[in-house]
Every structure is written in C-alpha cells, then in structure tokens.
Amino acid sequence: MIIQKMAFMILFLLLLLSFILNTANAQPRNSSIRPGSSLSPDNNSYWLSESGQFAFGFYPYGNGFSVGIWFEKIQQKTVVWTANRDGPPFHNDVTLLLSTEGRLIVQLKQGQETLIADASQSASSASVLDSGNFVLLNSSSGIIWQAFDFPTDTILPSQRLLTGHKPVSSVSETNHSSGKFHIFMQNDGNLVQYPEDSGGSNVAYWDTKTQNTGDGVTLNLDSNGLLYLLNATGFNVKNLSSTVNASKSAYRATIDADGIFRLYSHGLGEPDSYSAVSSLTGDACRENCIRDISCEAAIYVDQECQKLKLPLRFGRKIGDPVTTFLKAAKNDGKGNNSEREMGIFITSIVFLTLAFFVLAFSCVLVYRYRVRRYQKISNPRNNGFAEDLTLRSFSYEELKDASNNFTDEISKGSCGTVFKGVLSNGNRIVAIKRLEK
User: How far apart are CA 72 and CA 76, in angstroms?
Assistant: First the structure.
C-alpha cells in the first residue's frame, strides 16, 4: 500500500513538472495585455489570440522586422495587417511596448520612439482577438483603437471596409509596402478598384456597379466565406461571392500585388505539407516523392521540396517560379491486367495450399484420436470399460473360469441352470446361465 502511494505521488509530481515546463515554454496567449507588457524580435516576439489562430508582434521583413498581424496556425504565416507599412524595417534591438501611459510604441535603442497606434486616449489594456483584430481598450473595456479600422491590403471575417477607406495592394508577396493598386469603398455605394495615384474615376478597372444603393455602404466578409455589400439600414446590396462553409477553414479577402481582389481560404489545424526537404534540383524532388509512399504531390521552390498528402484541398498563388509534381498511377493497359491476374492467381494458390494443410492436419487429429480410443478399448485391463460401451461375446472356457467351473449355483430353470460368476479381474459379479438339453 505504501509503495502504491509513493508511485502515485511520483507520477503526480512528474505531471505537475511537465505542466510547469510546458507553460513556461509556451508562447503566451493574452486575452488581456496590461501596460508594461513588451515584445522583442529575438525573444517573446509576439502575442497570440485566445485560440492561437492569429498573432500580433514582430515578424521577419527584409533585413529586419516589422510589426503586424498574421495567421499563426497555417504553415505559411500569411500577414494580414502591417503597422507603418511604408517605414523602414526595425533592427533586432528594439522593443514593442504598451507603456504605462497607455501608448503602443516601438522603442529604439537610441531612445527614439515609433508610434504604432494613434489612439484618442490612453489605453488600460490591449488584446489580440480571435477575429484577427488587435484592439486597445479603455478602463471600461471599450475599444479606443483597432487595427480593423486601418486595413492595409486585407479584409478578415467580421471586419468592415467603411465608406472612404481603401486597402492598398503590396508591392509583392514578400514586400508589404504600398503597391500600385487599391480598392475603394466610395460614398455612392460603389466598390471600385483603381491604380494608385490615378486621380480620377475614368481609370477605374473594376467595380461592383452598385451606385446609389444607399448611404453608408460597407464591404463585409463573414465566417463562411461570403463577401457582400451592406448599406446603413442593414439591407444586403449585393453578394460578391457564394457561401463556402468549409469546416476548419479561415478566409481573407486581399487585393494582391497584381491588382486583383481575391477571396482566399486557409485550412486550419493541418499543415500544407507534411515534409520539406532541401533539394538541389527539381528531378531530385520528383524522385524523393516517388520513393515516399505517403507523398502524392510535391512543390519545388527555392531549392526546397515540399511533399504533400491527399486531399489537396487548398491552393495559393506563389510569386516565385515553382515546379509542381503530381503522382499518378500507371496505366499500361494489358500490363496492368496481367499483373492483377497474376496477383489473383498467386493469392488463390496460397489460399488453397493453406486450406489443404488445415484439412490434412484435421484428418491426422481425428485418426490419432480413433486409434487411441481403439487401443484403450482393446486393452484387457479395460474390459470393464469396453463392456460399458458395447456387447461382447465370451467363449465357453472364459465363462467356465468366471463361474469357477460352474460351482456356485444361484437358481435352476426349465432351460438351464444359473451360476454366479466374476468378470474383469474380480471387479464385476455377473449371472451366467448354462443351457441344458
């Protein structure tokens, strides 16, 4: 009993130690970020939303770091918002700080400061929401500033693109500075795309044709992937996409570097690729996928081979040139049929051979059982046993010996006399009748 209690205590202490270590090593998930909290590019570089789906903080950019929001649960950490996107990257010796005065700033080593959020009042706390929004809150938990009010190139579910706001495309997928195109929510209710610095509506290259559909029209994206326009009265002006409603998916609408406004779906909880290996050539990547039984497709980009499993559900545009390999079954016609027939033939032979051995083994067992049974019955010491099982005939000499030469008379009838006898080594008394003429 004492040993069991000691084992239980040791197990409890080990579990407690494991929990403490995991808690210490885990990236903090802050539902409430208090004044005095800080981040640095090299250590504790971001805050997570409650579910861990989004992160806010430093991410690598150019030859330094930028402050932004990105998808954390997908393999490619897609950036959806950037602070001071046209400013230079930060060095690794800076600190992102929610100061005790309630200001969100980046402190440089030289003592200079860069304001990240220009709030109307001091913040009492901050939070990374599961919607992908980063907010500053007052003492009454009211929002005094939010990233959703200042979109860069992306709209997320529950975010509204208000009248007069215009997300601007990035220069490229890796350069998040302001690019050459923007999408503008006009006062007349029309959503229009322009080249940057166009200066006039006559150069618009796409619009929703929703002019004069009411005041305060906003662009909205819901959690099911529906992109739509809504006016101030709550009337649905126009659906720009259809509902997808895919499980474990997250959506974003982005004006890309090429000026096209696209709706994206990201699978959550599963990595895009299960293995990534260094590969000098595309042929080596192809051969690596062929040899791997789990690999159904491979993407070769930047001397890296990313191997993929089925199902291949999600795709995305990649700026750099890529090579994609898809594994397909051979279709040799007759050759495949011959291999299939040979496989069926071999399987049949194996099955019949196994059945033959089982039958032979069963016959041997039955034969050996019957031989032993016969031997047991035939043994003179087992006459009693035999007599229990079947009738047996006795010779006159055997009956004479059993009745002691017919000396112990029991009774006498009209057909003969009955004598007492003993069979089976004296273990059984019987009546023996000797017939008389």
Answer: 8
